[in-house]
Q: What sequence folds into this?
C-alpha cells in the first residue's frame, strides 16, 4: 500500500509513536521522521529534568515538524509527534493542510508499564499524568483515526493501515 498522505502518529508518551511510526511508514512505502529529533536541545533538557513543556516551548518544534510535513505533501510520509492539543494539530495543519493523524490510544496502566521499561528515553514516567491532562483527543472534524495500542507492534501497525484505508485522499 502506498499513500500520498502525510501521517502524524500522535498520542501521549509511551503509546509507541517511535515504534509504530517506522513500521507504518514501511507498510505505506514512505519515509519516516522521528518527531523527537525536531525538538530544540532546550526542550529535551527541560523534559529530561521532569519539567513539562509549555505551549511556547512547543512552537518551534511544531513548526519544524509542520515544515517537514509540508515538504512531503503529495509524496507521503510518516512523522511522530505527540500533538496532544487541538491547537498543536491546527498549527501542523496550517503548515501542511493534507496531514492526517493516527492517534495511538490505550489504557493508562498499560502505557505507564511500557514507559517504565524503556531504555534511554528522555521522557520520565513522572510526566505521564501531565500528558493525559493535556490530551485533547481528535475531534470529529479532524482528519484522522484512533488506534488502540493493546497488542504487539505488528498488530497495532496493521490496525493503523486498515484505519487509514478508510480516509479520503488528502487535500493539497
A:
Amino acid at each position: 500500500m502506498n499513500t500520498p498522505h502525510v501521517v502524524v502518529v500522535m498520542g501521549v508518551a509511551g503509546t509507541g509513536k517511535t515504534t509504530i511510526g517506522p513500521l507504518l511508514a514501511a507498510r505505506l512505502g514512505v519515509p519516516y521522521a522521528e518527531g523527537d529529533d525536531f525538538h530544540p536541545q532546550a526542550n529535551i533538557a527541560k523534559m529530561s529534568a521532569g519539567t513539562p513543556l509549555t505551549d511556547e516551548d512547543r512552537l518551534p518544534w511544531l513548526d519544524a515538524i509542520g515544515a517537514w510535513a509540508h515538504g512531503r505533501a503529495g509524496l507521503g510520509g510518516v512523522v511522530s509527534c505527540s500533538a496532544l492539543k487541538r491547537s498543536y494539530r491546527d498549527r501542523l495543519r496550517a503548515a501542511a493542510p493534507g496531514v492526517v493523524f493516527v492517534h495511538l490510544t490505550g489504557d493508562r496502566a498499560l502505557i505507564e508499564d511500557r514507559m517504565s521499561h524503556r531504555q534511554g528515553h528522555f521522557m520520565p514516567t513522572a510526566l505521564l499524568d501531565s500528558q493525559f491532562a493535556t490530551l485533547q483527543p481528535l475531534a470529529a472534524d479532524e482528519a484522522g483515526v484512533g488506534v488502540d495500542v493493546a497488542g504487539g507492534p505488528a498488530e497495532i501497525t496493521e490496525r493503523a493501515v486498515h484505519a487509514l484505508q478508510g480516509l479520503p485522499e488528502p487535500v493539497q
Q: What stands out?
A: The helical segments are 17-28, 41-48, 55-71, 86-95, 108-116, 128-134, 153-165. The first strand starts at residue 6 and ends at 10. Strands lie at 6-10, 32-33, 77-80, 100-105, 144-148.
